[in-house]
Amino acid sequence: MKKLSVLLVLALAATLVSGCGGQVQVKITNDLGAWNIEEINIDPAEDSEWSTNRISEIMEPGDEVTIGVAAGTYDIRIVDEDGDPYTRWDVVIGSDGYDWAVTLSDID
């Protein structure tokens, strides 16, 4: 009976750990010069619409933000203060995370 209890506890612990999925870090840096970032969307690549904004405060030039996501393939969209989008499609985000220093040359 004791062995069965130990096995059940180990199985439960493994389930809990695998269910958490773990978070990897996506770091966005505003390198847009004089323009602020007002919105960041990070959504699974298979989603057809953008989700809610991932930042609660405007990012001024030079600001950085780190957002946790599960490892996977994502579309990432940044929107500046003029409403201009900067989009990266089908970004594979693995255990090392992902860094994007957004510049004006990234504009759609």
SSE map:
Elements: H1 2-20, E1 24-30, E2 37-44, E3 64-69, E4 72-80, E5 85-93, E6 98-102
Parallel strand pairs: 1-6
Antiparallel strand pairs: 1-3, 2-4, 4-5
Characterise the protein shown here.
There is one protein chain. With 108 residues, the chain is α+β, with helices and mostly antiparallel strands. It has a single domain, classed as Domain of unknown function DUF5300 (Immunoglobulin-like, Sandwich), CATH 2.60.40. 18% of the residues lie in helices and 41% in strands. It has one helix and six strands, in the order αββββββ. It has one helix at residues 2-20; strands spanning 24-30, 37-44, 64-69, 72-80, 85-93, 98-102. It has a three-stranded mixed sheet, with no helix packed on it. It has a three-stranded antiparallel sheet with strand order 2-4-5, with no helix packed on it. β4 (72-80) and β5 (85-93) form a beta hairpin. The termini are far apart. Mean pLDDT is 87; it is low at 1-19.
